Amino acid sequence: MSQMPQLAACPSCEEPLESGDRFCGACGYDLTAVPAPPDDNPTVAVNGAAPRPPSAAASVDWPVAPEADTSDTPAPVVLPTDIDGRESAGSDSPGVRFDRPAQPPSAPASPPPPPSPAHAPQPAAQPGARPAAQASAEPDEYPLAAPLPPEAPPADPRTADLPTPPAGLKVCVACRAGQVDRDGYCENCGHAQPRERDHMEQELGSVAAVSDRGLRHHRNEDAFTVSSTALSDGSPAVVAIVCDGVSSATRPDEASLAASRAANESLLAALPRGTHPQQAMHDAILAASEAVNSLADRSAPAHEHQPHVNAPACTIVGSVVTPSLLIVGWVGDSRAYWVPVDRSSPPARLTEDDSWAAQMVAAGLMNEAEAYADERAHAITGWLGADAYELEPHTASFKPDRPGVVVVCTDGLWNYAEAAEEMAEVIPPDAADRPLHSAQVLVGHALDGGGHDNVTVAVVPFPAPPQGAGSA
């Protein structure tokens, strides 16, 4: 029995072996199937060193250049194409192969034609190389499958004809698939839904108002109402009410909304009965105060356990414009401005703030610039609410001798145009003809300035146009 060759490592996985192993302990390779190495009887040279094995390149018969002669005939040039062979990639282009038997040398002047496939010598197979017959049988190019048709893009939720949601359910404005929960977020994509009061616009005849949440607040705590009615003599009257919720109080958005609606309803009821517009404005502010007071939680335990919680509160400013009178009323720091159509005439501020800064100026302790530069400038001293001090509604009556517009706004606007001259510069010259556009411009001015607060403004042309006439 032939002796099993001794191996140091498995031929399959190269795991080290021990003497006498018949199978690899790692991969199970049969070590008895390994052929024995051939006998090696090297020829020893005189100096004792074994000669190098003959190189395969020695088997190639290279053409020998003829000896140089003294004649003028140039020596023939031997090109690489004069040597038969096949490239390693398997193509039929001429080249040099060192693993094929020697071929008889060909005449340098005329290279022989390529051998036919039947008689051409085949090179030795090498790992990774395709046989020549297989290479010639395969096509040079493979046909590609036709591309799949492009998938239809998802429907644009802004223009797609989506199914109408069931009654009483709100659908997300972003994905138009999920329902909106009680907190105002989509149950499908989690997108926060815009609140109805984040941005509001209204145009009614010749009066218009715009309210915006601003860029810093998470909700809009302002509110407004605009309306028109007729006095007892049949002349028109235009009403605009603007309220600003006090952020440090609870539910300021509810307070401003309740106050604006109550004041508007009171004016619409009193003016047609013949009540003087100034008295009607005074009574409307009292009605607004009662509406805000009714929002307060008057239970004693609630205030005992939460002494830091303030009752709902807001400020208010309103105007009534008739063919001959301009009435304003206010509590807090919301303002009304007069801007004449003829900009050569001076504008004016029609209200005085119930604020710390205004008190300092009225007492002569500071000038207006110093007072409003103080960090306490916007601390209000008058407001509507159950915890307000003694309520003192402010009203004033004017008889302008020229046409113009009344700008009724919260501090979210006049913070960026405090002086009457600044307000006149911001409002467009055609404000009397385009009140809605003018209100939009004023709100945009505040947002461009930073939008640190809610912004609300109503633009009311004077004199009040006849009933049925609207803005251009």
Element layout with pairings:
Blueprint lengths: L131 H6 L61 E6 L2 E6 L9 E9 L5 E10 L6 H19 L6 H17 L6 H6 L7 E9 L4 E6 L3 E6 L7 E2 L6 H7 L5 H6 L10 E2 L8 E5 L5 E6 L1 H4 L5 H7 L8 H14 L6 E8 L10
Antiparallel strand pairs: 1-2, 2-12, 3-4, 4-5, 5-6, 5-9, 6-10, 7-8, 7-11, 11-12
Helix pairs in contact: 2-3
List keywords for this structure.
6-stranded antiparallel sheet; 472 residues; alpha+beta; elongated; 12 strands; 9 helices
Characterize the structure shown.
This protein has nine helices and twelve strands. The chain has helices at 132-137, 252-270, 277-293, 300-305, 356-362, 368-373, 411-414, 420-426, 435-448; strands at residues 199-204, 207-212, 222-230, 236-245, 313-321, 326-331, 335-340, 348-349, 384-385, 394-398, 404-409, 455-462. It has a six-stranded antiparallel beta sheet with strand order 1-2-12-11-7-8. A hairpin with a 7-residue loop joins strand 7 (335-340) and strand 8. The termini are far apart.
Distance between the termini: 117 Å
> How helix-rich are the residues, as a percent range?
10-25%
Shape: elongated
The structural class is alpha+beta
Percent of residues in beta strands? Answer: 15-25%
Question: Number of DSSP helices?
Answer: 9
Poorly predicted segments: 93-99
Main sheet makeup: 6 strands, antiparallel
Number of strands: 12
Order of helices and strands: HEEEEHHHEEEEHHEEEHHHE
Organism: Streptomyces umbrinus
InterPro entries: PPM-type-like_dom_sf, PPM-type_phosphatase-like_dom, Znf_ribbon
Pfam families: PP2C_2, Zn_ribbon_3
Protein name: Serine/threonine protein phosphatase PrpC
